[in-house]
Amino acid sequence: MRIRPTARRTAAALVAAASLVAVAGPASAAPGSPGSPRFTDGSTSGGDPYFPAAGNGGYDVQHYGLDLSWAADGRLDGTAVVTLTATADLASFSLDLRGLTVSAVRVDGKPARYTQLPPGEDGRGGELVVQAAPKLRAGTTHEVTVVYGGYPGQPTDAEGALYGWVTFPDGVLVANEPEGAPTWFPVNDVPRDKATYDFRITVPEGKTAIANGEPVGEPTTTGGRTTFLWRATDPMASYLATASIGDYTATTRLGPDELPILDFVETGVTGDALTTTQASLALQPAMIDFFDGVFGPYPFTSFGSIVDDDTVEYALETQTRPVYSQVASETTVAHELAHQWVGNSVSPATWADIWLNEGFATYAQWMWTATRPGGATEQEQFDAVYAIPADDEFWSVVVADPGREGIFADAVYDRGAATLHALRTEIGDAAFGDLLRRWVTENADSTVTTADFVALAEQVSGRDLDALFTDWLYTPARPAGY
Ligand code: TRP
Ligand code: ZN
């Protein structure tokens, strides 16, 4: 079933329709004359150096309407309505999708021809290539419907960690970073192409489905199947989408300015893990208040946590609603919350820039810890990192370009955070505070590079910081003299 399109989409369609009338160049125009279309095949690469198979070229997505149906045997059936605007004259274009079989594609309601290209030898990629008829003119907006299904199972990332749509006996934990979204929906899987999302998730009666944003109405049950609607109206990178399914206990809290905090803890989380989790989640309003002061106002329409009783062995900052494996510790909750500003609203342009997520969220976590009774100061946490022996391989990672298998290396987190502390020591607390707020405010809902951060740091401080950033971000050795 189609999900009601958003007002944003309707407005975009109207603008696109207007521009279609305005441009010259009917198909009969002389080849090469101004305005005449030169239809090309959209690239199957989004251009990321670490993950070239992720993402695509020739269009920009505004909205995903995902209608998902999950069965207890692990089968996923989906209908995705992708609203996209062509950025080139397209004869064909591709969406990332792997491990699932497509049974129909429609473009603006008309059946379209398509082919599926399987993942490469490294297990990355997987493309749905759609032949558009009629072809798509640059600047026009279209609705692409993909009907698909299969058994996602337990997909793994380039380092072997579980990610994407991870099936467990009692449900599903969904954590896509970095390029796992195609394990459950057809997508332009690059952080640059942010979009809004609607979810319609149907599960066996008794199970609960939790996605990003807020619920729309009450769930409805017919024939032993329950349907949950969720809507995420803030622009979101595809690696931050989730649609987790399980047996949850729900708790609602209020954050600063009446921000809804919707928490879901699986019934299998018990004992010490539950005690720790509940204590951490109870601190979320205070943490939001604290990070509001550090970065500026919380960037999204709601927050809250999903705590699964199964594990992928990490937590992820899924937008508005982080997911945790088996327990949510206080420092991890602070970390995933901080990501809402640094990572989710302000996202890395390429995966090589991931320290802009992890270094920043780790430093924010250090700042939170420093506010706690008996908590280590930022300087003490810096000192603990700096005390790692110079010959430890920790120091061999180039933080601003850690390599495809290094994006989650400890150094990306801890040396990344230490970089920010060294910067703070160099430019002073006042300039550092201004820098963090300007970084987040000026880059809200977009993507950034390390060069952008260096430039803003130099502008805000009025200093040449080349030596500091070269030492900390670009040199595979322990910086001397800090
Ligand atoms: N980005 C997550 C965080 O820091 C961590 C993460 C995602 C991760 N995928 C991973 C860590 C794979 C280790 C392995 O909150
Ligand atoms: Zn993180």
UniProtKB/TrEMBL annotation:
- Cross-referenced Pfam families: Peptidase_M1, Peptidase_M1_N
Output one GO BP term: proteolysis
Signal sequence interval, chain numbering: 1-29
Annotated Peptidase M1 membrane alanine aminopeptidase domain ranges read: 320-472
A GO MF term: metallopeptidase activity
* EC number in record: 3.4.11.2
Query: Which PANTHER family does its entry note?
Result: AMINOPEPTIDASE N (PTHR11533:SF297), PROTEASE M1 ZINC METALLOPROTEASE (PTHR11533)
Q: Which family does it belong to?
A: Belongs to the peptidase M1 family.
UniProt name for this protein: Aminopeptidase N
Provenance organism? Geodermatophilus aquaeductus
